[in-house]
Design a protein that fits this description.
13 helices, about 15% strand
């Protein structure tokens, strides 16, 4: 799909992002197969504290609706606990919410208590933990449980994302059967204080390798059968200063979602350039699954593509030759319907 193909004129729409995600480092203590950001212990590009504060500052100044700053990676705890406390304090002083996404490599029982307590005192609101078969090659599940326990004790919003597929050895049931987990969370006081997400582990390469998923994981697809909740609602900044159009999950594979560098260009202009392309609105309103479903009615061979994850589909809409050609050929037919849905959505949200 040519970058100019889905440019549209005369269609006016506007979204304000509510979250800024900072990929503070592409270094990680793990080296998971098919890591979305291609992170590993060998990669060492990391934002400075001054850069992090600058990105937050220009983000908040440019977009009045930003409410949440997400610190992710790679592994953000590689910045060091002192630096994380400084950043979280900075976010708190701007009256914003903060979230950290981590694999909990740091969470021995003592360190989990000390680190979580310090971050909560600095103003941290949410913490997300990533685990699964791949992660556990590098981080013990006990670390995840230690961190979860201390986070719940400190009244943080806690979520655990378990990346899984049909042949996974570790899933939500495995976690719930762990003695340490059961002792703390299987009580009336704590059972509803943690959110467990069965995420779909998927390949984001362009060879379309697809993991098979069991029914429980496939149920997640029902959630994906709606508009993308990331594009326009959030954007990401990489260690290089490159700006990504969404949470950045496919950014290492998808040049189209790279908007430009905030060190050399105006951040608001980079964001608003997305309005020129209909496919962005289409992704926002109907989402990758619905787009794929529509294109398959036009080109039946599309049904044969082994795709199982919304971000994998999105990546292929821009990189797979069959899908690129179909988007270019048929997107015009969808403009009236998608724009009508946008107007309805905007009206409802304003009520």
């Amino acid at each position: 799909m040519d970058s100019e193909t889905s440019k549209v004129k005369g269609i006016k729409y506007n979204f304000e992002p509510r979250a800024l995600s900072l990929i503070v480092t592409n270094e990680c203590t793990a080296a998971c197969t098919n890591c979305c950001f291609n992170c590993s212990p060998k990669k060492g590009t990391t934002m400075s504290i001054d850069d992090i504060k600058y990105y937050i500052k220009i983000g908040v100044e440019s977009f009045k609706d930003i409410q949440l700053i997400v610190l992710t990676g790679g592994e953000p705890f590689l910045l060091g606990i002192i630096s994380l406390i400084e950043i979280v304090t900075y976010i708190k002083n701007l009256n914003l919410r903060s979230r950290i996404v981590t694999n909990a490599f740091w969470a021995s029982p003592k360190r989990a208590k000390n680190y979580v307590s310090a971050l909560v005192a600095a103003g941290l609101n949410e913490i997300n933990f990533s685990t699964g078969d791949e992660h556990q090659k590098f981080v013990k599940v006990e670390n995840i449980i230690n961190a979860c326990i201390e986070s719940v004790k400190s009244n943080l919003d806690v979520a655990v994302n378990i990346e899984s597929h049909e042949k996974s050895h570790f899933n939500n049931k495995t976690l719930s059967k762990h003695k340490l987990f059961k002792e703390f969370f299987f009580t009336e006081e704590n059972i509803n204080k943690i959110k467990i997400i069965n995420g779909m582990w998927s390949s984001l390469d362009n060879e379309l390798y697809s993991y098979k998923n069991n029914k429980n994981v496939k149920d997640l697809q029902k959630e994906y059968m709606r508009g993308c909740n990331s594009i326009f609602s959030s954007f990401s900044i990489l260690p290089s200063g490159e700006m990504a159009a969404c949470c950045g999950l496919t950014i290492s594979k998808n040049e189209y979602l790279k908007l430009g560098n905030v060190k050399t260009s105006n951040i608001k202009s980079l964001f608003e350039n997305q309005y020129l392309y209909f496919i962005n609105l289409w992704l926002k309103i109907e989402g990758p699954y619905k787009i794929l479903e529509y294109l398959a009615t036009k080109e039946p061979k599309i049904k044969e593509l082994p795709l199982n994850h919304s971000c994998q589909i999105c990546n292929c809409l821009f990189n797979n030759e069959i899908l690129k050609e179909a988007v270019s050929k048929y997107y015009i037919e969808k403009i009236p319907e998608v724009f009508f849905k946008y107007q309805i959505q905007r009206h409802v949200n304003n009520i």
